[in-house]
């Protein structure tokens, strides 16, 4: 009873220290830590919630709203000292800036310990208090830096991924700070989002704020911003961009959300814009993400006709020195060429047939060679591409050379498949030539036109092996 009365009396005294114990949060803030909180290792176990009356869940509520209401009913009440800390954290009117910074630092320290991360995420007021600071317009850099790191710590355990994202302000808080100008805040927000995206794929892709924020992170060097930064800040910004690219690659591998992601213009257009402008590791992630979007058959038409410069981006990557980028670009073109209504557009794309033809002759890269030949075969299935392909320098000659090459180029016997694809493509082109030469009705050729001989009732599509002369002497 004495302890309870002592804790109640302390609640009303806002300007006094909340605990006699000291917690060292950061070396640069030692002077500010005069009213710090109990050490993280001594975090009190949250008590069960006293809520007995269930909130009304209306039938017209969205599924997310219903889940949020159920979540709020299951949260546990915080310990009195933690509750006082959360009150300081969110009071922007009556609490001094220094005390709020100290409170943010204390929350950050509590979330650093693995044993506290799961209980704190399920304690009433913790996640909402952190996100309210991150969404507040008047929050300082120091407050947001500490709170975004605290949120990132809570996002580390896999058991928290669905729960933390379910809080109402979490997506907005992450989106606001992913596009922040301060490097540490941006990186922590990007890392936290990448954790939560693993189990909230559909919700993350559908959230426009997060998608726009991702686009801004990718465009970090659009206006030469990296050139004006210090070396350390540049590393952090590049790291944040790499983190977002890895998250997009993870999302693009999911079939269920591929359709939505491919139609998110702010993401696809940004990926196309930054392709081949970043470091090698980031560029591979970028082109691999775009390639994964072509795996869904329903995306092909949209990507070819509604994503400006996407196909040209793939064409440019075929000739790059990096083998992984070459492979991804050729795989993407192979997928796109399977769509019937995209073949003519692809065949008429400047430089596409020439680059694919060169790749088809790379005996030292079997995967790229096979992919290039598959692309040529797919394009040859459209009769309107006959003239385009036969007019492309080296295309027919390359197919003939590969069809007549009996030398084994691979221990796995891949040359057999190379020969087959080359012959199949030549046969398809020959089929369209033969079709063009056919006449659908029999003709009788008379002497009026100056031609000798008759072809009455014969099939004009078959070779006659007859020679015609002009007034030759015998």
From TrEMBL:
Residues 463-474 have a biased composition (Polar residues). Keywords: Repeat. InterPro entries: ARM-like, ARM-type_fold, Vac8. Belongs to the beta-catenin family. SUPFAM superfamilies: ARM repeat (SSF48371). This is Uncharacterized protein. The keyword Transport does not apply. The keyword Repeat applies. Residues 7-22 have a biased composition (Basic residues). It comes from the Eukaryota. Residues 23-36, 53-64 have a biased composition (Basic and acidic residues). Residues 1-68, 445-474 are annotated as: Disordered. It comes from Discostella pseudostelligera.
